Each structure stands twice: as structure tokens, then as C-alpha cells.
């Protein structure tokens, strides 16, 4: 019996969150507009070309130690 209340409350919560998100984000309830970099198709294409360009320049691959938060350069066993 309580299961139907839990499921109904969960569905209602997600519905309420979706309505709030829709009106605040899509309908711009508090004003504002979508920035030009997000709505301009040419800008998106040029940015995509930049990110897909090869060769990419970067340093050597690193592994992060989450405990000490130090980065270690990964070296092959041959060297």
C-alpha cells in the first residue's frame, strides 16, 4: 500500500522538477537570452573544427594520485 504512495510521490517530484526546469531554462522565466556562441551555427562549426584538429599538442600522459593529488608522468617500461 505504501509503495504506490512512494512511486506517486517520486513521479510527482520528477514532474515538478521538469516543469520548473522548462520554465526557468527554456521559457526564460527570469529573463535573459541564449548567448551567441551557443546559438550561432557557424561559431559551433569553427569550434568543432578546432577541437577535432590533429595533431594535438600536449604534454606526456599523466596519472593522478587521488590521495596526495600529485600527478605522475607515465613512462613506458622500455625506457
Automatic annotation (TrEMBL):
**Entry-linked Pfam families:** DUF1138
Under the heading InterPro entries, the entry gives: DUF1138
Q: Which domain of life is it from?
A: Eukaryota
This protein's name? Uncharacterized protein
Source organism per UniProt: Pisum sativum (Garden pea)
Amino acid at each position: 500500500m505504501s509503495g504506490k504512495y512512494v512511486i506517486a510521490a517520486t513521479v510527482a517530484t520528477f514532474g515538478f522538477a521538469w516543469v520548473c526546469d522548462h520554465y526557468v531554462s527554456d521559457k526564460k522565466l527570469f529573463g535573459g537570452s541564449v548567448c551567441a556562441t551557443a546559438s550561432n551555427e557557424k561559431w559551433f562549426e569553427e569550434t568543432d573544427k578546432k577541437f577535432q584538429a590533429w595533431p594535438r599538442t600536449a604534454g606526456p600522459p599523466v596519472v593522478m594520485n587521488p590521495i596526495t593529488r600529485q600527478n605522475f608522468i607515465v613512462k613506458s617500461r622500455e625506457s
